[in-house]
Amino acid sequence: MEIDKEKCVGCGNCHAVCTMGVIYLDEDGKSAVNQDECVECNTCYRVLRNEGYPPWFVRILRKVLSTFRLGYLAEVDVCPTGALTPPELEWPRNLRAAFSDPTTIHAGTGIGGRGTEEIKSNDVTGRIRRGEAGIVVEMGRPGIGARFRDVEKVAMALAPLEPFFEPQNPVTHLMADPKTGKMKEEVLDEKVMSAIIEMKTRLERIPKILEALEKVGREVDTVISVGVSSKCLPDGSVPHEEWVRKAGYRLSPNGKTNLGMGRPFFKED
Amino acid sequence: MTNTLHRRGTPNSLKNDYVIFCTMAKGINSKGSGPKIQEFIRICLKYNPVNMGDGYLGNILQEDVGVQKFLADRADGEGAAAVFTDLDTLQKVIDELIRADLGISINVSGLLDEVQACCRKAGMERHSAEHSLGVWGAKDRLPERDILDVNTLCGHGMVSFNLIRKMVEHIQLRRLTPQKAANLMAQCCECGAFNPVRAEQLLEKMVRREG
Question: What are B95-109's pLDDT values in tens digits?
Fold first, then answer.
């Protein structure tokens, strides 16, 4: 995101809305963006209504008010002068928007958001079958953001355990070699709101994968939200629960349930 | 489109937080899916969701979207999400979706045992399930738990930690009511998975705590 210094009146509303907390008041009394840390999520631009006031009007109003010892306090959800300006992004910086702005469609997968459909369409696609587990490793969530350098670190730690990295996932698209988890060199310094390493494996491999993940989790400078899924047995029980518990990890009481109302486009095993 | 898996909170506070959403399988059943998604939306709207949206159009709490536009502007291959605050209503929505037999994937995010009980009442077993294993890695970079409970109400993390703090301050200063603050935060969450009712309760709790 860029801020038009000619228009900005330094109200500071965009500072709080910024998902990464990287908009600040510059020495000139106007807001500025730390471009290295900005993930181009466009939340400030989308959420703060452009009131369209001429900057000179807001400045004069402020001066008049200050004469009477009154302050100018803009409504919390506006940019009074429309100073926020989304820039044209080029490769590889445009990856930031693709992984951070949910209204942006990933060029590779054709899907908005951060990942693919994982279990959400499992009743239709049969992506995760009996005996298999889906594992999603969301780097940077909640609220911290992640560099692809850290994403690579985790992918490379998991790759020797031979998970099947989901080919339709946007992170897999950025791997130079899915066998090693190595990412393309030019993307490593890019920072995104979050990026999901998505894979499937055999149920019995869950403990090894979680063990490797916990170990590499101590070496990265961000947070990781982890999810595990599987196709339920005919009695509705969840096969991965046993393997996660065996590995010594706690399962959340809440989660995602695919109700199975989709018409299958695959043959059951 | 939604990443509602990692919503945080005590089981008690999660009891009023259910997100139901439809998802198309790209390249498989997305073609011609527009009317089916529209029917999903129509059914959900009948039961007054506290929020509804998708990543492409935005959510119904946003001024430039609204219920009618959200229902009307449907194209193939887009999903939609609706938020309900009680199980009885969720049960009714599920029952009606079964009768509608849309043939598209329907998921619910919420307490897994409760959702399973809903499925059984409706006479079916769940197809697949996903658990969160929580947050790993550099957890020392995270803010306090209350802030995370609100932040994770948006699947894409678009409600910043600082905005939540600012909303608490504004409520304390009586510049905003908890309801207005919650609705303001809901504007940030494009796909409509944000639960403004639960957010309001969480904000009130934080304000009380900070006294």
Answer: 999 999 999 999 999
Half-sphere CA count of A140, side-chain side, radius 13 A: 28
Predicted local confidence at residue A115, as pLDDT: 64
What ipTM was assigned to the predicted interfaces of this complex?
0.96
Kindly give the interhelix angle for B178-188 and B161-172, rounded to the nearest 10 degrees: 160
CA distance A185 to chain B (A): 23
pLDDT at B64: 83
pTM: 0.95
Map residue B179 onto helix, strand or coil: helix
Residue ranges of the alpha helices (H) in B73-160? 87-100, 112-121, 145-151
- Over residues A67-74, mean pLDDT: 80
Of B24, B102, B157, the CB nearest to A193: B157
The size of the A-B interface in CB pairs under 8 A is: 286
Non-local CB neighbours of B145 within 8 Å, separated by 6+ positions? B8
A242 conformational bin, left if phi > 0, alpha if psi -120 to 50, beta if neither: alpha
- Looking at chain A, the whole-number percentage of residues with pLDDT higher than 70 is 96
Note whether A261 contacts B21, CB cutoff 8 Å: no
Give the residues across from A204 on adjacent strands.
Answer: none
Other CB atoms within 10 A of residue A87 CB: 12
- The structure tokens listed for B42 are 């129509």
- Cα B126 from chain centre: 20
* A142·B184 Cβ contact <8 A: no
